Amino acid sequence: MSRFQMLSDAQWSLIEDLLPRPTGRPGRKFSDARLMVEAIIYRYRCGIAWRDLPEVFGPWQTVWTWHRRMAFDQTWDRVLAKLTA
To answer: Are 6 and 38 in contact (CB under 8 A)?
Structure first.
C-alpha cells in the first residue's frame, strides 16, 4: 500500500460502479478513476490547496475537474454516502 493510497480494495469495490467510465471516444486519455478519487480524498484529509497535490496524482487541474464534475452531478455525494454507510 502506498502512502498516497486512501481506500482499501474493499472500499473501492463499493464505489467503483458509481464513478464515470471511459466512453471510447477518441481524444484525451481517460484518467484512472481510482487515482482521481484517491487524490480528492488525499486533498480533503491534508487540507491542502489543489495546486499542492503530489505529482503522483497527475496534474492537479485534472483532479480538480473530476471533483467539480462529480460534485455538480452529485456523484460525490453518493460516493461519500456509500463509504460512510
So the answer is: yes
For the chain, the straight-line distance linking the first and the last C-alpha, in angstroms and rounded, comes to 24
Could you give the CA distance from residue 60 to residue 43 in angstroms, rounded to a whole number? 10
Question: Which is higher by pLDDT, 81 or 3?
Answer: 81
- Other beta carbons within 10 Å of 38: 20
Q: What ranges in the chain are assigned the alpha helix state H?
A: 9-15, 33-46, 60-72, 75-84
- Residue 3: DSSP 8-state: T
8-49 pLDDT per residue, tens: 889 999 999 898 876 666 666 667 889 999 999 999 999 999
